[in-house]
Write a structure and sequence with these properties.
Blueprint: H1 6-29, H2 46-53, H3 58-67, E1 78-83, E2 89-95, E3 100-105, H4 120-128, E4 141-149, E5 152-162, E6 167-172, E7 177-183, E8 195-196, E9 202-206, E10 211-212, H5 230-236, E11 237-247, E12 252-263, E13 267-273, E14 281-287, H6 303-306, E15 313-319, H7 320-328, E16 333-335, E17 338-341, H8 343-349, E18 352-357, E19 362-366, E20 372-376, E21 382-387, H9 388-396, E22 400-403, E23 409-411, H10 413-416, E24 417-422, E25 427-432, E26 437-442, E27 447-452, E28 466-471, E29 476-482, E30 491-498, E31 514-520, E32 527-534, E33 542-546, E34 560-561, E35 566-567, E36 578-584, E37 587-597, E38 600-602, E39 605-609, E40 613-620, E41 629-633, E42 638-642, E43 647-653, E44 658-663, E45 676-682
Parallel strand pairs: 12-17, 37-40, 39-45
Antiparallel strand pairs: 1-2, 1-33, 2-3, 4-5, 5-6, 6-7, 8-9, 9-11, 10-11, 11-12, 13-14, 14-15, 15-18, 16-17, 19-20, 20-21, 21-24, 22-23, 25-26, 26-27, 27-28, 29-30, 30-31, 31-32, 34-35, 36-37, 37-38, 40-43, 41-42, 41-44, 44-45
The chain binds dinuclear copper ion (CUA).
The site of dinuclear copper ion has 9 residues, from loops.
Length: 684
């Protein structure tokens, strides 16, 4: 490296200061003898030298110490569930270590997890979660949420939506696996998020693109057609907000008890479901209240231009408890398997209200007290805080400035606004800490901006005032703070979910990873701790839950069907393995009940005839944690895993004759290479 340059010498002096800080840390964690700082601040300790060698600034070295998690120690305080964006999966990370702990297959097959590669249970999930159009094997996961008890996350279930095809999935935090996907009726896409009501009675979610809507019949993908013209769009296209009834004991949605509220054809965007003073209400913002449809090749302006004309769009305010009562009173109309509170009924019965919101906004979040709704202005450089008490009072007093073209009453902006905070360019999402602060992501300014809320969230002076900002690389979308979106966020950490990552990571080709940045928000100044490239889709939004709220299983009780966590009818014990061949309808079925135990697959020879439907029920009879076995059959595209105690069924058509090798794909033991078998398919 040659001689020490002047710059490096300067840094060396600088590190002397760091040395003092590191020495203080060393006294706690490392033993003072390991780190020596000379009098006068000359950094000559072991860690100083290492930092100098690696070119680390003192703040960077400190950040490394704050998040490093040595093997064998459990230093993470939070678990983050992040969307996997267009990978269709969810990602589990430890915080603050930022270590990736798991990918959860949700909308997308995953051969390791046995999801969609011959595994019957996962195939049924994907099938049930597909539209009537075709089997869907990909998705665009955007917003996760966690089940709640009294508005607090209880750590039992998570849900995550698919923006692309308007679906919602349920993940169990017992085994961090997907249990159900539902295709939400009448909706074409969704971006409203996924929001458990305060006691997980429902998961609320709004549509994004309005759908062609036959009056009285709704929308059915693959069959409802109404030609896309500006007039038809205004008259016959509709948005929707769904309340998916959730059976928390089973972890399943129940469409028969679910309902929807029909909305005007604005592009509904993010929403939030309230608690405390906002209990019973949903707030969602919208863009394109211009009702533009695009058509750059048909002589109309691009959507991005036409949809950005008005200075105000509409914050949607839905009284969902009242809507629920209307449904119970029989005032909803059944459309495509779900009760719908029509737009006319919503207006007549006082379910739906608007408040003006600047300008093509994004992000709609509720403060911890439940008192304020914070909306990021996106094209306006402000966060608007709406006072829920004022909203409710103005609705009671019927104080409106008028109605929209569909008769929806519009509240007066000045009457329901608590404050506007000038934050900078492109404000999107607001997340909160335990000290009455909001943190807003500014997409264009590449910043996270911290501001004081108002009472009761923040009772000091300078309410709704910016107090700190930190630069982000680059183009932050969502951000997540610990347990924000509940009544008691925990502070400490913020993760910025950034869209661009140029100059942050070594070049691995034109498709760059997305970049997650961990920020310390415990002090007066926010401080960047870590950059994490995620090479799996685009993590869109994330939630961080205290690790002690989660009670995951270590192993399944032997014979468990993970779909229900009860004993599978196909569970067997060692020694009970059997092969049967029987006819179902016109098809011969070779059905096998087998066991997996280090290091034998029993049976290890399966003889079937060409044309047989082969159905193998594996029971992993292991009781030891992490004793997962895999299963893969050459040339049959069958792959998966069977966790200790799990019963999993694999099914395929033995359409090609031959002798095919199968084996345990999971390295499980010294004789893992011997954990194999033969599938013999005799020609018909
Ligand atoms: Cu079982 Cu390798």
């Amino acid at each position: 490296m040659g001689t020490i340059s002047e710059k490096k010498l300067k840094r060396r002096e600088f590190l002397g200061v760091a040395g003092a800080g590191l020495a203080a840390g060393a006294a706690i964690g490392f033993g003072a003898g390991r780190l020596v700082t000379q009098p006068g601040g000359q950094g000559t300790g072991e860690l100083d030298k290492l930092a100098l060698q690696r070119g680390l600034e003192p703040e960077e070295a400190r950040s490394a110490l704050r998040i490093f998690n040595p093997g064998g120690k459990y230093l993470d305080e939070f678990i983050m569930i992040s969307s996997g964006g267009h990978s269709g999966q969810a990602i589990i990370l430890g915080i603050p270590s930022m270590r990736i702990l798991k990918y959860i297959a949700v909308y997308t097959p995953d051969p390791w997890q046995g999801y969609g590669y011959g595994n019957v249970e996962s195939r049924e999930i994907l099938k049930k979660g597909s539209s009537d159009v075709r089997l869907l094997t990909g998705g665009d996961t955007h917003h996760p949420d966690i089940s709640r008890t009294n508005a607090e996350w209880d750590g039992e279930w998570a849900c995550i939506g698919d923006k692309l095809s308007a679906r919602m999935a349920i993940i169990s935090f017992k085994d961090f696996a997907t249990k159900e996907i539902v295709r939400m009726p009448n909706m074409g896409s969704q971006h409203g998020g996924a929001h458990f009501t305060p006691n997980s009675e429902y998961v609320a979610c709004g549509s994004f693109f309005p759908t062609p809507w036959e009056p009285g019949k709704g929308y059915k993908p693959g069959s409802t057609y109404i030609q896309l013209t500006e007039k038809n769009y205004a008259d016959f296209y509709r948005g929707q907000n769904i309340y998916l009834a959730f059976d928390r004991s089973r972890g399943r949605f129940d469409l028969t008890r679910s309902f929807q509220v029909e909305l005007p054809p604005y592009v509904q965007d993010l929403e939030a479901v309230g608690w405390g003073p906002s209990d019973g209400w949903t707030f969602m913002n919208s863009i394109n209240t211009e009702r533009a449809i695009g058509g750059v090749m048909e002589g109309r302006p691009a959507l991005e231009v036409a949809a950005s004309q008005r200075d105000f769009d509409y914050l949607h305010i839905i009284n969902w408890k009242k809507a629920e009562q209307l449904v119970k009173d029989g005032k909803a109309k059944e459309m495509n398997g779900i009760k719908v509170v029509t737009l006319d009924t919503a207006v007549k019965e006082g379910i739906l209200f608007f408040a003006p919101e600047p300008k093509s906004p994004h992000g709609c979040d509720i403060s911890p007290s439940g008192r304020y709704v914070l909306v990021g202005g996106k094209l306006a450089p402000v966060v608007t805080a709406y006072d829920v008490e004022k909203i409710k009072q103005n609705i009671v007093d019927q104080r409106f400035e008028g109605t929209d073209p569909y008769g929806v009453p519009i509240l007066r902006f000045e009457e329901v606004k608590a404050a506007q905070v000038e934050v900078g360019l492109g404000p999107l999402h607001n997340e909160f800490d335990d000290a009455g602060h909001g943190h807003v992501s500014c997409f264009i300014a590449n910043e996270v901006v911290r501001y004081n809320l108002g009472p009761p969230d923040y009772t000091g002076s300078n309410t709704f005032t910016v107090i700190d900002r930190i630069k982000i690389q680059y183009n932050i979308g969502h951000l997540a703070t610990t347990e924000s979106g509940t009544a008691s966020p925990k502070g400490k950490y913020l993760v910025a979910l950034n869209k661009w990552s140029i100059d942050r990571f070594p070049n691995v080709g034109p498709l760059l990873p997305q970049n997650l940045q961990l920020i310390d928000i415990s002090g007066e100044k926010m401080q960047l701790l870590y950059d994490l490239p995620i090479g799996l889709g685009e993590p869109h939004y994330a939630k961080m839950i205290s690790i002690d709220k989660l009670k995951p299983l270590e192993v399944y009780a032997v014979g468990t069907d993970p779909a229900t966590f009860t004993v599978s009818p196909n569970a067997i014990r060692k020694g009970q393995e059997r092969i049967e061949r029987h006819q179902v309808g016109g098809t011969w079925v070779s059905e096998i009940w087998g066991t997996l135990l280090r290091s034998t697959m029993a049976p290890d020879i399966i003889r079937v005839k060409q044309g047989d439907l082969v159905r193998i029920h594996w029971t992993n009879v292991e009781t030891v944690r992490d004793a997962t076995h895999g299963f893969g059959i050459a040339d049959y595209n069958v792959m998966g895993k069977i966790d200790p105690g799990e019963v999993a069924t694999y099914e395929f058509l033995a359409d090609k004759p031959g002798v095919f090798y199968y084996y345990c794909t999971e390295f499980c033991s010294p004789l893992h290479m011997e954990m194999t078998g033969w599938l013999e398919v005799a020609p018909a």
